[in-house]
Automatic annotation (TrEMBL):
Residue span, Glycosyltransferase subfamily 4-like N-terminal domain: 124-233
GO molecular function: glycosyltransferase activity
Protein name, per record: Glycosyltransferase subfamily 4-like N-terminal domain-containing protein
Highest classification ranks of the organism: Bacteria, Pseudomonadati, Bacteroidota, Flavobacteriia, Flavobacteriales
CDD domains listed in its UniProt record: GT4_WbuB-like
Amino acid sequence: MHKVLIITYYWPPAGGPGVQRWLKFVKYLRDYDIEPIVYIPENPNYPIIDESLVDEVPAGVKIYKKPIYEPYGFARIFSKKKTKKISAGIINSKNQSVVEKVMLWIRGNLFIPDARKFWIKPSVDFLVDVIEKENIRTVITTGPPHSLHLIGLELKKRTKIRWITDFRDPWTSIGYHKKLKLTKASQTKHKQLEKLVLNEADKIIVTSKTTKQEFSQITQKPITVITNGYDTTLGNSVALDVDFTISHIGSLLTGRNPISLWKALSELIQEYPDFKKCFKLQLAGVISSDVLESIYFYGLQSFTKLLGYVSHDDALHYQRKSQVLLLIEIDSEETQGIIPGKVFEYMASKRPILGVGPSNWEVGDLIAESNTGKTYTYAQLGELKTTLLQWFQEYKKEELVLPLAEVEQYHRRELTAKLSKFLAWE
């Protein structure tokens, strides 16, 4: 059986979508004659914890750990709440305090490529022996944090392993890079490291066609797209909400703020008494203050239910109960290739998806091809309102269904089959 070492920062009990990609690959790799061995930090600083995911780790999988030093622990002395938000990727560009500005500058310019950089050297020293001991031929690094790719880079120099990089998100083109107050020198350093990793790796995995196109301008190495996916049974196994519930499952960070949607909902409430009577906006996860301010500005506060963070199991439950599922991305060119991991679980729930994002958003093609909903830009107020009203009328007739949804190709087992073929060497 071919052994593969997977180097990842996020692993149960970490919560959120980042942990699930490789947790699910590990779950199915043995079905394709590949034995996964996992390397993770011993004392990580996870912004979200979901203990329910611990039970999903396959029995018998060998896991190696090494302590990690993270400067976020030191930064908490100054502001525990703000440090946790920055660690989780919540960067509010409005009304930043002096402490926030200083922390962002330090994060962006002193910790390149990221604050987990201090794990690189001890990990390399440790894993050289593990690779020899376990007779490992292939190493996979997954980021962010992209510092983990530098572990793979050094291991390739010191051993005879074949190295594959997995980019769950882009590196230098991701939206929050612009908010890190990077100096010109820091921007150049990130670009240099990105180019080095892409050209030294043997193969590259990305989660979107947009990222593949971007990376193809930097390297000639083989690149394949393996999206995220779902690992549940299809269909709706729970009773739907009695209310016309529109739910967003997952964090709504700064910038994911479609004013046109809030306005459309506000107008529907004012124009249709039956809509006002039945409508409920349900938000699960961390919601940034600017998004909440906009929702409340349009008079939606009394219709809004904040669930806070929910476990993965509960998230699946809410998805299947909701009448409509809301998917929102920041309106920018940089986010056109961002495909949120939850979109595939949304698809599997077989509830209509209403997507709001940038022009030429890759998610729009996925949703259209799978017959699982509709997507609009931030400017399409009229179209948004028309679709919502149509779905509401179907809801009243108990006819709001997706009989033609085609999503089986995104099951985690199918995606792992694709990964196993990419891992093969002639």
